[in-house]
Design brief:
- It is a single chain.
- Helix content is about 35%, strand content about 20%.
- The chain folds into two domains: about 120 residues, Leucine Aminopeptidase, subunit E, domain 1; about 325 residues, Zn peptidases (Aminopeptidase).
- Helix 2 links the parallel strand 6 and strand 7.
- The two termini are about 35 Å apart.
- It is globular, with a radius of gyration of 23 Å.
- The strands form four sheets. Strands 8, 9, 10, 11, 12, 15, 16, 17 and 19 form a nine-stranded mixed β-sheet that branches.
- By secondary structure, it is an alpha/beta fold.
- Bound molecules: zinc ion.
- The site of zinc ion has 6 residues, from loops.
Length: about 450
């Protein structure tokens, strides 16, 4: 989508105009759930759409995306949108930027359509707002695209190359450890998860120093990067297994967020870490009953090879804890079906014992629509990760409170960091939408982290 500042206030083509009162409109038709109603006035070449300025940023972004998605075919080459009087324009523009995202990467009859273009009128500081909306949109689209790509394209190595490309382009640093280095560094948990696949695991470390005067890392973002999850030898049922390409959505959000920070030159020191592997079935695959030696030094009994994301993250958390010493650590993972059974597709599960961090993240979730809600990390759940033979087990023997048990497991490897949070978000990162008939990537986490970083910077 191409969005520019209008050169004139008298556009020659179709003009999109928001109206707050839909009752007087003729030729009404719905743009989705009865919310978006437009009327066309051929004489004036105007297209009116119902617009509720009281909506929050997330709803305005959704509205912009839906408007562009449903109407761009009418625009022609010289369309404009008049946003005079609209208060919160940046999220609406961000949504418009995302309107032409197309899932059909592999369709042979895919025609390269000309990019829809729209000139914006009636807003202050238009150039700046458009630039911010564009970066926010492109970052979220990057996360969506990575999630939607098929397994054989987006291998762990591909994620590493993608991180390197972005770092080079936008001026931050990145290193990618290969399987040998992972083994040499004693990341026994991450290595075990990836060793059954022809696509070897990688460990991605990106660093962005936006605040060179501060001699520390303010924030570490960790994302689970399981590029495909068959469940391993504890194999998943075949129904919906094709959706398991989304199991790196936390990693995608983290990589997109550091790109966003670098592009917007946010004054923050950030490290983004993605332990990435494919959980596959093979003679080399790890086996239930195995004991893994993790990077932290702790041993892990494998009850179920499908609880692999927490293993990859355990090594990443312990590595960040030992080598980076950040003020705050947040990990994000498509970790448990239990979180979806608890909160549905409406919110991710948040775990932290830092009350301020919890409050800020919940607030950022509400602001951006990337909602999350706290669940407990009480001692009462300690027994859920008990192992008789190793230091911890990777799955509770009783099938209860799965999301909490996973968080309790990770807590061991966060090793009493005073400001650590874990976000369990499979239901939010890959779901139904008005833009596709199957589930697809949402880019959950990118706007959440953008908002959270801005709030963090305000407190410096
Ligand atoms: Zn799994």
């Amino acid at each position: 989508m191409k969005i520019t500042v209008a050169k004139t206030d008298r556009p020659s083509g179709l003009t999109l105009i928001p109206v707050s009162d839909s009752s007087q409109q003729k030729n009404q038709y719905s743009l989705g759930e009865g919310e978006w109603i437009i009327s066309e006035n051929d004489a004036k070449r105007e297209l009116h759409f119902y617009f509720d300025d009281s909506k929050n940023a997330a709803e305005l972004a959704d509205a912009g995306r839906l408007l562009g998605y449903k109407t761009s075919k009418f625009w022609g080459s010289d369309a404009a949108i008049d946003l005079k009087g609209v208060k919160n324009t940046t999220p609406f523009l961000r949504g418009l930027f995302m309107a032409d995202y197309d899932l059909g990467f592999s369709k042979t009859d895919r025609v390269e359509k000309s990019e829809p273009a729209l000139a914006v009128m009636g807003i202050e500081d238009a150039e700046h707002q458009i630039e911010i909306a564009k970066v926010e949109a492109e970052s979220q689209l990057k996360a969506m695209r990575l999630v939607d790509l098929p397994r054989h394209v987006k291998t762990p190595e591909y994620l590493g190359e993608e991180a390197m490309r972005s770092a080079e382009k936008y001026g931050y640093s990145c290193e990618v450890w290969d399987c040998e280095k992972i083994q040499n560094e004693n990341m026994g948990a991450l290595h075990a998860v990836g060793k059954g696949s022809e696509n070897p695991p990688v460990f991605i470390i990106c660093r962005y120093h936006g605040a060179p005067n501060a001699d520390k890392t303010h924030l570490a973002l960790l994302g689970k990067g399981i590029t495909f999850d068959t469940g391993g030898l504890s194999i998943k049922p075949s129904t919906n297994m094709h959706y398991m390409k989304c199991d790196m959505a936390g990693g995608a959000a983290v990589l997109a967020s550091i790109e966003l920070a670098a592009r917007l030159k946010l004054p923050i020191n950030l490290v983004a870490v993605v332990p990435s592997a494919e959980n596959s079935v093979d003679k080399n695959a790890f086996v239930p009953g195995d004991i893994l030696h993790s990077y932290s030094g702790k041993t892990i009994e494998i009850i179920d090879t499908d609880a692999e994301g927490r293993l990859a993250l355990a090594d990443a958390l312990a590595w960040v804890r030992k080598n980076e010493n950040p003020d705050t650590i947040i990990d994000m993972a498509t970790l448990t079906g239990s979180s979806v059974r608890t909160l549905g597709y409406e919110a991710a599960a948040l775990f932290t014992t830092d009350e301020n961090l919890s409050k800020t993240l919940v607030e950022s979730g509400m602001n951006t629509g990337d909602k999350l809600w706290p669940l407990p990390l009480w001692k009462d759940y300690d027994s859920y990760i008990h192992s008789d033979v190793a230091d911890v087990s990777n799955l509770p023997l009783k099938p209860l409170a799965g999301s909490i048990a996973a968080a309790k497991f990770l807590e061991v490897f966060a090793d009493n960091h005073p400001s650590w949070a874990h976000i369990d978000m499979p239901g939010m990162s890959f779901k139904d939408s008005p833009f596709a008939k199957t589930k697809s990537g949402t880019g959950y986490g990118v706007q959440l982290f953008a908002d959270f970083m801005r709030k963090t910077i305000e407190k410096f």
